[in-house]
Amino acid sequence: MRDTLELLAPARDAEVGIEAVNHGADAVYIGGPAFGARDKAGNSLADIERLVRHAHRWHARIFVTLNTILRDDELEDARRLAWDVWRAGADALIVQDMGLLELDLPPIQLHASTQTDIRTPEKARFLQDAGFSQLVLARELTLAEIRAVAAAAPRATLEFFVHGALCVAYSGQCWISHAHTGRSANRGSCSQECRLPYTVTDAEGRIVAHDKHVLSLKDNDQGANLHALADAGVRSFKIEGRYKDMGTVKNVTAHYRQLLDRVLEDRPALRAAASGRCRYGFTPDPARSFNRGATDYFVNGRQSDIGAFDTPKHAGVEVGHVTRVGRDHFDVSLHEAGAALNNGDALTWWDLQGELQGVPVNVATQLGGRAWRVMPNATIEALKDLRRDAVISRNRDMAWDRLLEKKSAERLIAVDLRWSATADGFALELVDADGHRARATVVQPHQPPKDAARNEATLRENLARLGGTIFEARRVELAAPWFVPASVANALRREAVAALDAARAAALKPLPRAEPLEPPAPYPEDTLSYLANVHNAQAAAFYARHGVKLVEAAYESHERTDEVSLMITRHCVRWSLSLCPKQAKGVIGVQGTVRAEPLTLVSGGDRLTLRFDCKPCEMHVVGRIRKSVLREAKAQPMSFYRTRPAARA
């Protein structure tokens, strides 16, 4: 992987994964039947095997997520699942729980999930030395921090999220969902408490922000930073989205395929991790898929505009403005000549309080030029603050959706063909762009052609006819001037293509499993708190084997019922609201009066405290687990690791 760049796309199911490969993914990550960090995106072993067969034709890889923390009573099922997905042909497992490394696993490559919270060179070096081949870095890292990790873990491939939704917390460092609902983000069932509106109050109870989504972030977009990320050491460029629909995965994968191809053109020492070049039947545009606005987060340092505080919804792409509001319709002037509205589109606007409003289009009628009349799927009275000159955006475009429902890409591998004569017939040799070779021969009398020029043109056309395969002819060399019936040429071409497919399959080797160091590498710390997410005895044994003396149980064990950090994040509400002491430095009359005192978040009956650790520039969201969650957990007998023995009933 040192000289390759990998575009890694998500798949909710096998069909989405197949289209991700068709649209340029070098690898796809997908959930198996259980234990994936998206509990509603599981897939059968048969579907994984079908996706593997498709992907491997281009030498693209399939990674299966087995990245929840596991209870003791789940370990055996997880071990069997690891063997099952390996037998199905999967190339790697994405893992969070270190207890799996204590089990009898198949010889499959292991990748450290972003849930393992890889923020430091020391953590990255340890995971490399423990046997992980690929490390999914924390999304919060800067370019300098990525370079430091690359230097510390030179044997591991670095993977980094370049697009999609952002968890506000360091991955694996959020327990708000579990504390409030019993649904653990570490076990694939996040309730997304971070997307709720909160009222923010200061230490004196004054309202700082009212009903704002202050923990909700814009979506990640590293499109402008790919060259810099590659130079920093990233080799796998990951798109978020195992819940995303087919159209979104097609669109975003195609977009980043084009961007990465430009990086490869500018970096001749690097190459794509899989084969083939893509052609698209549409112009990729991530802005047209669901998004909350774009940010490159911390890659280029702390930014002030990373929050999607007004709404966690998709506002859409601005298309025009309202010119008139009638009794049962409203008229819109579109910005672009030739643009159109469609029946079934969804339009949005911002009301006078700054809240996003929207309505589906029942009927759209062109009035002439850029003017359109919209009959909404609601009464005009129900459309809050829809008014003349209101800016209109579109967050569902039916014409776009219909375009992406069709076949929208083909991925082909260039191949050179050489036709020659043998002693008793002819031979066709194929060499693909990766250097794989295949040869087919046929016994056929040598006959001079009646029309040499026409014979050559026909033969060349028949040999280059590779439709229905994954290949396209780059060059056709004819070294035999004899007449050949079209049926013979076509049969030999099909035989040679089948042989080339077989040669490519034979050349694809399993990804190697990294060997852990012996004696075991020491963990960077000798004490672990609940932050380490240790939920089974095998994980505790793993850390003990690596020199850790005290291993506290995971938050999901419910040993911690006091106020604790339920989220640790690099996002800072004070910074985003221009209340950070560092921002006040040098401001006359302000310096020294702004302090990093705690703030309070209020949503419904829940109160959370924001505490600010200014030295590492981090924010802790502090709270306690609901009693209802504890009562419900007690009613469900489960077996998991505890720091101390459970109290007897």
Description:
The protein is α/β, with parallel strands linked by helices and 649 residues long. It folds into four domains: 4-166 and 218-288, Copper homeostasis (CutC) domain (TIM Barrel, Alpha-Beta Barrel); 168-207 and 522-649, no CATH class; 313-405, Thrombin, subunit H, CATH 2.40.10; 414-507, no CATH class. Helices cover 24% and strands 27% of the residues. It contains 15 helices and 30 strands. Strands 1-2-3-4-5-6-7-11 form an eight-stranded parallel barrel, surrounded by six helices. A hairpin with a 2-residue loop joins strand 18 and strand 19. The two termini are 54 Å apart. 44% of the residues are buried. The model has no long low-confidence stretch (mean pLDDT 96). It comes from Rubrivivax gelatinosus.
CATH class of the largest domain: Alpha Beta
SSE-based structural type: alpha/beta
The number of strands is 30
- Strand % is 25-35%
Terminal-residue CA separation: 54 Å
Second-tier CATH architecture of the largest domain: Alpha-Beta Barrel
Total count of helical runs of at least 4 residues: 15
Give the low-confidence spans: none
Largest sheet properties: 8 strands, parallel, barrel
From the alpha carbons, calculate the radius of gyration and give it in angstroms. 29 Å
Could you please say which CATH topology of the largest domain applies here?
A: TIM Barrel
Overall geometry comes to: globular
Number of domains: 4
Mean pLDDT: 96
CATH superfamily of the largest domain: Copper homeostasis (CutC) domain
The strands making up the biggest β-sheet line up spatially as 1-2-3-4-5-6-7-11
Tell me the helix content: 10-25%
